Amino acid sequence: MIMIMSNFLFQALRQQSTRILSLASEEHLFHRSDRISSVYLLLSGVVDLVRYQRDGSAVVLNRVKDHAIVAEASLYAEQYHCDCVCVEAATVQSVPRANMTRLLHSDPHLAEQWSTYLALELQNMRYRCELLTRRTVAERLSGWLDWNGVLPPKGQWKNVANEIGVSPEALYREIKKRRRETPNHILEET
Question: Considering just the CA atoms, what is the radius of gyration of the chain in Å?
Fold first, then answer.
């Protein structure tokens, strides 16, 4: 159940943009503790919001795909609470924080659209938290499939593994097991 922001909200925010950035795969848009001066709109590509642990491991807090706001909660903070890393090449538009705040204060309809978007993102985060509490790879994959429908192409399975907090190898074994047990099921790639 992937939520997409309303076209009205997205276009209104795009009009407030001051620059467009092109980023390569594995490039950072921002780092944890960077000062926030802009909000970013993801025009194309995929980025992960990542928190690195003391042992060097990474926790994917959120995966952001085309036509979405990157780290929407940053509008209300002084510093980023995580890193933003491109999973694949991405194009983003930078919207100065002051422009966005001014727009939300001046347009009640847009402010309501923004509130709806934030509520949907909160639901997504709650889903991710619940998913990551599941104990087995099978349970996590089932939850991911319930939410997203079908697996992406095979070259993107590593991203799914990162998203559900398991090793790529464990995910591949689970997919192989399911394909043997129920061929032509929802594991078919898009």
Answer: 18
Rounded to whole angstroms, the Cα distance separating 28 from 139 reads: 31
- Position 25 scores a pLDDT of 94
C-alpha neighbours within 13 Å on the C-beta side of residue 64: 27
Give residue 2's pLDDT: 42
Q: Which residues of 148-160 are buried (b: 16+ CB within 10 A; e: fewer)?
A: eeebeeeeebebb
Output the pTM of the full model. Answer: 0.75
Q: Are strands 68-70 and 19-23 parallel, antiparallel or unpaired?
A: unpaired
Give the residues of the chain that fall short of pLDDT 50: 1-3, 190
CA pair distance 142, 157, nearest whole angstrom: 14
Q: How many CB atoms lie within 10 A of CB 52?
A: 14
Instruction: Please report the pLDDT score of residue 1 as a whole number.
Output: 38
DSSP assignments along 130-141, one per residue? HHHH--SHHHHH
Burial of 76 (C-beta count, 10 Å sphere; 0-12/13-18/19+): exposed
